[in-house]
Known about the structure:
Blueprint: H1 2-16, E1 30-31, E2 42-50, E3 54-55, E4 58-59, H2 62-76, E5 84-87, E6 95-102
Parallel strand pairs: 1-5
Antiparallel strand pairs: 2-6, 3-4, 5-6
Amino acid sequence: MRVLMLSVLVATTTAACTWVPIEQSGKSVQVLPAGPVPAGCQQQGEVVVSVKSKVGFYNRNPLRVQEELETLARNEAPGANANAVQAQGQPADGSQRFNAFRCPPR
């Protein structure tokens, strides 16, 4: 019985600890703060990303979810010929929309 409970605890804990790695191409993509887009940046499109915000009855840490969404957006941006992303709003149910921009080098 103890082994079963420990197994369930370990499975639940590790399932809630997902981690999204930054890809090599996403490392050069910057996350722009909310507000006006820097001069010279051209919109290239939109990136929509999602992760699990809830595992079973467990709600994941919202900051961790937001961090993973930003990482996914950075990973997707080069596919839109973009080197910067800016969130359109707050995450909702593990999903978030980002505008993708091509900005001049700083």
